UniProtKB/TrEMBL annotation:
Residues 108-313 form the ABC transmembrane type-1 domain. This is Peptide/nickel transport system permease protein. Keywords: Cell membrane, Membrane, Transmembrane, Transmembrane helix, Transport. Its main location: membrane. The chain crosses the membrane at residues 21-43, 114-135, 147-175, 187-209, 248-270, 298-320. It is found in: Cell membrane. The keyword DNA-binding does not apply. SUPFAM superfamilies: MetI-like. InterPro entries: BPD_transp_1_N (IPR045621), MetI-like (IPR000515), MetI-like_sf (IPR035906). The lineage of its organism: Bacteria, Pseudomonadati, Pseudomonadota, Alphaproteobacteria, Hyphomicrobiales.
Amino acid sequence: MARAAYHKAHKGGAPARLARRFAFLVASLLAVSFVIFSVMAAVPGDPAEIMLGTSAAPDTLAALRHQLGLDQPFLLRYIGWLGGVLTGDFGTSYTYSTPVGTLIAERLAVTLPLAGLAILLSVTIALPLGVLAAARPNGPVDLFAALFAQIGIAVPNFWIGLLLILAVALTFGWFPAGGFPDWESGFLTALNALALPAIALAIPQAAVLTRVTRTAVIEIATEDFVRTARAKGATPAYALWRHVVPNALIPVVTMLGMQISVLVAGTVLVENVFTLPGMGTLAYQALAQRDLIVVQNVALLFAVIVMGLNFIVDALYAVIDPRLRR
């Protein structure tokens, strides 16, 4: 009975599971888009007045509202905006009088490499540190990992950014204290400008992943199949890296997916600390200037990135855990 119920719940295996997850992803994104548009529509302020100024004539304001479609019913405006997003037309910025898609494309060229570099650094730091800490509990590496995790979790990423500017950029001059030279200035030059912001974003993520990795490795190391491998003659190092670490990756990947939303939120603060022309800075400036069309498109894009990456992480479970492929 129990086995039949299990197979019925998991009918179709991993492909069917991913199809259901993708359908849920699409439905969630539609719901998020409606919430974002509703919140932006409820924000006080008239975009036409923002563009023309409060001294504009009433008939001029009315003509601009009609041109922007602001005089249409709420549902028609939402459908028009969502249809434009699906076809690549994100509207025009009230402040810059520039297509929002152009602004977003320019800023993504900074934010996506920054986020990717931060994820790469956090995983590179956390996995070896967490595994080595679990290999010898209460040893020197374990004590260092505990201290690193405690500090990394306690200190916000923007404070880490400020400390890096003071301690590294201004003191030694190894990295720029802020700004971005553009990718046309050279790959290494641009990467050098992203190094400190990426470290500031990576340290809190690495602290959490280190703690999760250590706990998962210690828990898996006590399983029967590990003791069986040791009894058959496997060395401690072979048992650790061949049997323990691959099985401990599942909770690590889960936590990495959960941390993506924190990483995206952190880019808003870190980009402003380092004056990087990324998505976070664009969202902050648009909100300060009440450029609501930019804010709602950036918010939707952040939601797409977070939910899309979580879907990819969910798909990785089938690669990590062979049981999900049956």
